[in-house]
Amino acid sequence: MTTPRAPKVAGIDSTVPSPPHTAAPAAPIPPLPSGDLAPGGPLQDRLAGWVSDLTLLHEHTESLIRTTALDDALHEVLRAGASLVGARRGMAVLEPADGLGPATTVGLGLAHAELGTIETVPRSVTSYGRILDGLDPLPEGTLPRPIAIPDLRGERDLDPRHREVAARLGYAASYALPLATEEAGKLGAVVWLYDEPAEPAERQRHLVGLYGRFATEHLARLLEVERARAQVATVAAELLPSRLPRVADVQLAARHRTGPRGGGDWYDALPLPEGALGLAVGSVSGSGPSALAAMGRLRASLRAYAVMEGEDPVAVLSDLELLLRLTEPARSATALFAYCEPQARRIVLAGAGHTPPLIVGEHRTEYVETSLSAPLGMLACWEAPSVELSPAPGETVLLYTDGLLRRTGDPMDRAFARLHAAAASVPAADRADPGAVADHVLRTVLPEGLDAPAADGEDVVLLAARFE
């Protein structure tokens, strides 16, 4: 009868320098003979090992602290943890115990389909599921413990479905670590997978445990930021049109994204008497909830003025400027209002410190010549002449806020040139759809996308109107 083979001890990733000792450093050091202080003695080896461990932890925590998005942080936790426990693959599940989300799963060395295969195993029989769902009985107030399965093939109590998936994906052992602290609560779990039977040594468990506690606190901070951003985006969306109006002889499309701090950029489109249409974009100074509230008040006021005297955009902005000075004396705003007669393809517009519209068509791509004027609330009395233009059939007029330009990171003159080039490059097949025009412009001006982190936190607004 052969003796069962004991699982091997997982090694440290070869890309990370291995400490010169194998003993666990967590226990107190007993008094040693003076000879141990000699070069190469046990105490010196142990101290060298501690220094190596601390250096390794410092490198990993430094890399983690530079992450500013939840997904990036989870991928970094997976990568660093795999190095610490000697694994090659793994998955991280973010699932805050308070139920407020967001919930996500990311993998290391696992394709999306392979993650889906693992998730077909009932959570109650997986190590990460036992951690997340609290299936292991623990005293009240006790945090979940790591779970090691050193040999999945030899584990008698392992569910057959788990064994089948492990064999299909080619992993033979796992080590699951809870992402939980007393301060942050339970946020999720990470599980690393070994290709052969293995488990981390005591020293490795200690290191990854220290790293896991730090990672949990960092994830908790990012989670708060993510939730705040989501709340701000929800409030901003509620303050903007829920849908665009249907008006004869014109098609409309809008794209909007709120920055991480929540700015005051807005847009509007409202039907007016006699088949006319009012289009507006604007930006309120400041950020956060107060800017959102001011944006909501300003947009509602402009709608009222547009209904009463929309055919005179200068009068609309003059009334808005007076209201802003009386009710928001410490705030300024830029705005552009356009009175459109779609059937006649006639537009009269006025702007207050706002970026000029852009006309996109088969035969031209050009900015509308508007007079320079100060933002609302900057002068004792705002006044600027209106501009009239006549778009040709099939041309699209783009209204936007300067956040679109600032997000490029370029100087303003280069940002304007970049926007013009993007509009000029709209494929002919897309020009019949204002939504396709807007999407092409955004993809070209901002290749990383609207959801990419913006260092300056600028909102982006783009309103497209195509005239038949």
Description:
- The chain has eleven helices and 17 strands.
- With 468 residues, the protein is of the alpha+beta class.
- It has a five-stranded antiparallel beta sheet. A five-stranded antiparallel beta sheet has the order 8-17-16-13-14, with helices on one face. Strands 9-10-11-12-15 form a five-stranded antiparallel beta sheet, covered by helices on one side.
- Strand 5 (173-181) and strand 6 (185-194) form a beta hairpin.
- Helix 7 runs antiparallel to helix 8 (313-327).
- The longest helix has 38 residues, at 202-239.
Question: In a few lines, what is going on in this structure?
Answer:
The chain has 468 residues and is α+β, with helices and mostly antiparallel strands. Helices cover 35% and strands 22% of the residues.
Poorly predicted ranges (pLDDT <50, ≥5 residues)?
A: 1-38
Outline type: elongated
For the biggest β-sheet, the strand order reads 3-2-6-5-4
Which radius of gyration do the C-alpha atoms yield?
A: 30 Å
**Could you tell me the number of beta strands?**
17
Largest sheet data: 5 strands, antiparallel
The count of helical stretches stands at 11
Average per-residue pLDDT, rounded, comes to 86
Task: Provide the β-strand percentage band.
Answer: 15-25%
H-E order: EHHEEHHEHEEEHEEEHHEEEEEEHHHE
Question: From the helix content, strand content and strand pairing, which structural class follows?
Answer: alpha+beta
First-last Cα distance: 87 Å
Instruction: Indicate the percent of residues in helices.
Output: 25-40%
